[in-house]
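Thread: "does anyone have the structure for this chain?"

Original post by V.I.:
We have the sequence but no experimental structure in hand. Need at least a predicted one for the grant figures.
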Amino acid sequence: MTLTDTVTRLATRPRSRGVGLLPYAALGLDLAIMVAATLLAVVGRQQGFLFHDPVDVSTWAGMASPLMVVGWATLTWLVGGYRDDVFGAGTDEYKRVVNAGLLAAGLVCAACYLGQVPLSRGFFFLLFAVGIPAVLLGRRVLRRLVHRARDNGALLQRVLIAGSPEHVDEVAAVLRRERWLGYEVMGALTPATDLSIETATGVPVVGNADDVSAMTTADVVFFAGGSDISTRRMRSIVWELEQRDVQLVVAPGVTETSSDRVRVRPVGGLPLMHIDPPNHHAAGRIGKRTFDVVSSLALLVAFSPLFLVAAVMVLVQDGGPVLFRQTRVGRHGREFTCLKFRTMVVDAESRLGALHAATGHDSGLFKMKEDPRITRTGRWLRRYSIDELPQLVNVLRGDMSLVGPRPPLPLEVASYGDDTARRLHVRPGLTGLWQVSGRSDLSWTDAIRLDLYYVDNWSMVQDLSILVRTLGAVVGSRGAY
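Reply from O.Q.:
Generated one for you, tokens below.
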């Protein structure tokens, strides 16, 4: 394909109209949920739900509810809950929705107090106690639908990346890997000295890095490193793209860094990016350890019947040991005995060398979809990750955490470079980003990338999010073998 053909294809391809409709879809969904929550609060208060005496609030609610619902939606809009750039990724959307709901609840309380309005406390409690989580759930469902649409080629924005070929390829690799973000890379804009047919990874070059006419054929323009554009010219490009409804994004040469560690502070008109140090030290503090101890104890009690069933199934299968004990490496390189329900034949370890030779495996954790060593009972235990439940004992002992990188074998650790060794800065986990992102379907490189991201960007909120997402990954059996 020639350069002219590429530019023509960009210019003639219609923009995705669905992207612009997302705020309206979110507004309609929010209003429907708010109305439903209001009706539920009215019925619940009339039936005396959670309260001793039923109270008829239909007359009062019929007058005040429309104003409350409209005010709630308006506050969501004022805090940016319907901005185009909050949909599809990150926690910013959810934070804005929660803030709007809490602000609405606070203003209703203040207005009723100052205006001496006899608001039913039961109605108020039910409305916001049900409404705020319901709106969050609705946004979560909408996001899942958006991700599915993007995976199927819809709701995509056309992207041009301006910068040196090397920087273009780095940004393009991320956008292609994370397709759910909704960016479709259509071409590159490189400096005049690097103008060629395409980059090393096949991104077609459609013009010069400051070619505004080429930029107007896209929905979004990413400016990566190496574009060699002065600040004055960049300001001029921003002004020109403003008239063409083209979004401009600056992609700094910083990757795998959580937004919580990034602060942009303008100084004299110059936006300076401050990056906080990696946060792995916080993962070893008493708060996370207390959460691990309390949660592992509760889960051990809750899953005790399942432990018994699994143990009997393994024992009946071939009469071998119920538990499989293996030496793994934990925090700071300390070795420990990792526990699992045995899912393989008794002599599985002795067969490993032959499987390595047959499959050409030479590094990383060995995983095989049709591993002949796995027993029939073992396949069922692995499918739902029941085989890993004994590791709750490891969590209680302090060898592991509920969330963290997978515990590696000593042989793996011996081959670690300096970068990969950072995985050992935190306790290994029963679950982690690897599990909620594909489990065994991930390549070794992607698994390491996710582990390092977790180590550098640890937070308790992220741990809780991973635990919730783990339930979906286990129920769906994604990448379990």
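V.I.: this helps a lot. The chain has three domains: 17-151, 156-253, 282-476.
O.Q.: and The chain is about 50% helix and 10% strand.
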